[in-house]
Amino acid sequence: MGDYFQTIVDLDAGEAEATELAERAVAWLVSEGIVLADRSVCVLGQPLGHPPGPHWSRAVTDDDPDGEPHDGLAVHIGRTVFDSGQDEPEAVTCPHCRTTIDLSDADTEETVWPRFASAITDWQDGPADADVTCPACARDVPLTAWLWADDRLAAGHLGLEFWNWPELSDDFRARLAAVLDGHRTAYLWGKL
Fold first, then answer.
1. Are 15 and 4 in contact (CB under 8 A)?
2. pTM of structure
3. Smaller CB count within 10 Å for the chain: N or C?
4. In terms of Cα–Cα distance, which of 67, 60, 64, 116 is closest to 91?
5. Confidence band for 138, pLDDT divided at 50, 70 and 90
6. How many CA atoms lie within 13 A of 31 on its CB side?
7. Are 147 and 139 in contact (CB under 8 A)?
8. Cα(175)–Cα(185) distance, integer angstroms
9. Mean pLDDT of the region 155-172
10. What are the tens digits of pLDDT across the range 101-119?
11. Which residues pair with 49 in a beta bridge?
12. Beta strand residue intervals within 33-134, DSSP E
């Protein structure tokens, strides 16, 4: 069976603004009745989270009318590499030259993936950003700027992780991005 999660990662939030943006996002979610302000034991991997509110359905698609959220919202602030919990990323695209690098190719996996693995470690341990040189255009690209196929990976200072909720709607994700100053966001779906 397992536990499912959906994470919205703010790709543009800097370290200095992540806390303020998280507070603003939670305040908006509470004002919409999507989550409750009072935190409780309702998320995996965190001591406390925000349980679903009376209007949680404002955040989800209409495809599953009987599926209610079983758990809550975990808010992650700080350098984090978010992943889908399963499967390695298959491809990544350079934001400058738009070349997509197939990470599932055996040759590429041996030559390129170690660069990303090293940058992930450096970024998490940082204080500095970690760059990966694009094999196509030779530009140094911050780890947070790469575009990951199938939304299996994202690096950021702010992530909102919904545990065991029905599918979050495109409209909800767009409204939440607007609350986050219109920042670029990544949407990851995963299972443990």
1. no
2. 0.90
3. N
4. 116
5. very high
6. 8
7. no
8. 11
9. 95
10. 988 777 766 778 888 888 9
11. 40
12. 73-83, 91-93, 100-102, 131-133
93, β-bridge pairs: 100, 147
Q: Give the integer Cα–Cα distance in Å for 176 and 29.
A: 9
- Residue pointed to by tokens 């495109």: 170
157: its two tokens = 């200072």
Q: Which amino acid is at 162?
A: F
The pLDDT value given to residue 1: 62
- Report whether pLDDT(65) > 90: no
**What separation in angstroms does the CA of 146 have from each of 104, 172, 183?**
17, 24, 15
Q: Is the model's pLDDT at 66 over the cut of 70? A: no
DSSP, res 139:
-
Mean pLDDT value across residues 4-27: 95
Q: Three-state SS for 190?
A: strand
Closest CA to 61 of 51, 73, 69: 69
The amino acid at residue 191 is: K
Cite the beta strand spans of 103-163 per DSSP E: 131-133, 140-142, 147-148, 153-163
- CA distance between the termini of the chain: 9
Distance from C-alpha of 151 to C-alpha of 188, rounded to nearest angstrom: 5
- Torsion sign across C-alpha atoms 38, 185, 157, 90: positive
Residue 60, beta-bridge partner list:
168
* Tokens representing residue 164 in the block: 């065991």
